[in-house]
């Protein structure tokens, strides 16, 4: 098996349009000890679930632009 496929994942980028539909995924990532990185509205939703989240802006040290439409360019 390819070494890259066997590597354990430690971080996931999550950005959801339908926040309620993603709760199961978010809880599963947290239970698997995977750091969740997210954008503005989704990050707020994840915090309301009492799950730690790192914002993309904190990770890149660069704010979202164009009214929040561009967040993950870096």
Description of the structure:
The protein has 74 residues and is an alpha/beta fold. Helices cover 36% and strands 14% of the residues. It has 4 helices and 3 strands. The chain has a 3-stranded parallel sheet with strand order 1-2-3. α3 links the parallel β2 (35-38) and β3. The protein is globular. The mean pLDDT is 81.
Features:
36% helix, 74 residues, 4 helices, alpha/beta
Q: Helices and strands: which structural class?
A: alpha/beta
**How many strand units?**
3
Q: What is the typical, i.e. mean, pLDDT? A: 81
Query: What is the straight-line distance between the termini?
Result: 31 Å
Q: In what order do the strands lie side by side in the largest sheet?
A: 1-2-3
Helix content: 25-40%
N-to-C order of helices and strands: HEHEHEH
Identify low-pLDDT runs: none
Coarse morphology: globular
Number of helical elements: 4
Radius of gyration: 13 Å
Largest sheet: 3 strands, parallel
